[in-house]
Design a protein that fits this description.
CATH superfamily of the largest domain: Glycogen Phosphorylase B
Order of helices and strands: EHHEHEHEHEEHHEHEHEHEHEHEHH
Number of strands: 12
CATH architecture of the largest domain: 3-Layer(aba) Sandwich
Number of domains: 2
Structural class: alpha/beta
Helix content: 25-40%
CATH class of the largest domain: Alpha Beta
CATH topology of the largest domain: Rossmann fold
Largest sheet: 6 strands, parallel
Strand content: 15-25%
Strand order of the largest sheet: 3-2-1-4-5-6
């Protein structure tokens, strides 16, 4: 008997990739005998490597050129997939599966790509919902059964042990709380709470709780981390630009509190059920906020909200109206 082979195009962003995990688990439960493969960008593949039902990863275009898409589609065709599920809404993701000749192509009918899909769902049939529910609704409207799936991210005991040993080598005192700060947001500066306020918050947490302050981020966000550190009397540990996505996940799993902007690492911490304190500005926490407890969202709606700008053209009032003292009180509630 031939085993059904399904390829899933995952989202490109870290946060969205985390939020598609419940839907990915539901897909597997609807097709327990199928082989499930992922078409995922390199920087998010690590998030899925611990799921035992993921058979492997397939190539995607390395650039936006037609030549790159034809090359990737040619390779994809050799896997002989029976069906392809698209979580992203892009035209290009549907074009890849179409060029690869995948017989059944499932996804939202967005960006004029309906003719590339064999079974599609219109977004206006579901309204404004959390991103994790958005992915689940695609499966539901495609006729699949929806199971209650907790957001989780598996890590091996070795990965956790290695993270703990690395923190010990960095002179972390585990008798004191580990407080992670995530001051970046890949989308743009509009989503970032000012670094001066992160520094004030860090000083409050050091003074009142003797917290180990650990700053995370990408290599591009190292200047943000260093600017925070330069304003602090007791220097923090900076992990920015020093980890793979799995190493970052293992480090985050050790945190007592994770303070963050609306970003991918926020959802990683939330998947581990680490207490998350999230500062929101131009985006909507009802759509991209932490999916589960324990979490607290600080959000003050401005007249221009939601703008979804990458950079604020005004006075950044949505973020500036949130004080370090307010964020500290949210952290303190998790540190009692």
């Amino acid at each position: 008997m031939k085993v059904m082979k399904i390829v899933v195009r995952t989202p490109n962003w870290i946060g969205d990739s985390i939020l598609c995990i419940p839907a990915l688990k539901c897909l597997q439960k609807n097709h327990p005998e199928a082989e499930i493969w992922l078409a995922a960008d390199r920087w998010v593949q690590g998030l899925f490597r611990s799921f035992d039902f993921v058979k492997g990863f397939v190539p995607i275009p390395e650039s936006g050129s037609i030549k790159s898409y034809r090359s990737a589609a040619k390779k994809l065709k050799t896997y002989l997939f029976d069906a392809g599920l698209l979580f992203p809404n892009s035209f290009s993701s549907a074009l890849l599966f179409f060029l690869a000749g995948i017989p059944h192509r499932w996804g939202f009918n967005r960006d004029g790509r309906g003719f590339l899909l064999t079974q599609s769902v219109k977004k206006n049939s579901i309204g404004e919902i959390h991103q994790a529910e958005y992915y689940l609704s695609l499966l539901r409207l495609l006729g699949m059964k929806i199971y209650t799936e907790e957001l989780s991210l598996p890590l091996s005991s070795d990965e956790k042990k290695e993270a703990r040993e690395s923190l010990l080598k960095l002179n972390v005192d585990f008798s004191r709380p580990l407080i992670f700060l995530n001051p970046g947001a890949y989308y743009g500066s509009a989503k970032r709470w000012p670094v001066s306020r992160f520094a004030e918050l860090a000083s409050l947490l050091q003074k009142n709780h003797k917290g180990n302050i650990i700053i995370t981020g990408s290599a591009e966000e190292i200047p943000l981390s260093e600017k925070i550190a330069s304003s602090m009397d007791l220097k923090p540990i900076i992990l920015s630009g020093r980890t793979t996505i799995r190493q970052l996940s293992a480090f985050i799993s050790q945190a007592d509190v994770f303070v963050t902007n609306d970003s991918g690492p926020m959802h990683i911490a939330n998947a581990f059920k680490i207490p998350v304190v999230a500062v929101f500005g131009p985006t909507d926490p009802k759509i991209t906020g932490p999916l589960q407890d324990p979490s607290k969202v600080l959000f003050k709606q401005a007249a221009c909200w939601p703008c979804f700008y990458r950079d604020c053209p005004f006075d950044h009032r949505c973020m500036m109206s949130i004080s370090p003292e307010e964020v500290y009180e949210a952290c303190r509630s998790f540190l009692k």
